[in-house]
Amino acid sequence: MDGARAASRLRVVLGHLGCPSAGAVIAHPTSGAVPSASFHPQFQYTRDNNVLSLEQRKFYEENGFLVIKNLVSDADIERFRSEFERLCRQEVKPPGLMLMKDVTIAKSKYAPSEKVITKAQDFQEDEELFRYCTLPQILKYVECFTGPNIMAMHTMLINKPPDSGKKTSRHPLHQDLHYFPFRPSNSIVCAWTAMEHIDRNNGCLVVLPGTHKGTLKPHDYPKWEGGVNIMFHGIQDYDENNARVHLVMEKGDTVFFHPLLIHGSGQNRTQGFRKAISCHFASADCHYIDVKGTSQENIENEIVSLAEKLYGVKEGVSLKDVWRFRGRLVKGQRVNL
pLDDT digit string (tens) for 62-73? Predict the structure, then answer.
């Protein structure tokens, strides 16, 4: 990673801060969707347009997620896969990118490859991977949740490895809003695309339908015997009787979900590498908040500490400063974020 370039960009951003500022669910094809009516006062999580059918809108409103079949082409996915492999081999080093390893293989002697890297996080400066965030078919659906001014805020290509036996390939149940210092939550959505067949064997997403209607809960590292990966915070208190849905997805299927939806993923029990590419989008009309004194203060301290280590910027950095650095406009106008 070009740390000097990344640090330079972050300093430029900081220089502007003085300015105002229940079993498996398999989705079915959505082609030929019937346009929703022009206005439904009961809808608070989706926007009025002609993309989602009335049935789809009601499903998202009630459950907090929606799977669209075969949304991303095989050709695009193979391009993303190839670029990820180049990143793993360190043939390209875009600024700001963080390559992460599973805690149980972090000190392994493997040569740089997909066997070592479990996540390429913050790929906003890698133009090939960032194409995912600009795909028209992705943005068409994103606009149903954010409106027309769209920021790509958080990017990840996740490479879940075969579990080492310590169960560290799983991800604890969590809410993505825990990581975000911007609101309102109803103007944020994640697009998460399967890069191959994904089921319970290789660690599919598990969601708790309807939990997006609740509040942000306190998160921290779970007390797992085998260890926990960096920044894998989990909810400390949730209803264990809440129904769980395991999302079985095919290559190219994409799930859109609300940042308060409680979700996680299981361990990979296969010998393959389960890949997915994702981006959290937000309306550019969202605003930043100060998380000090809230349940998010612990993740702010951790992320800021990591940013200081990576970029060498140590003067008054906050969580929202880091997100200003990450965010890129993908459609419309950059208003606040």
Answer: 999 999 999 999
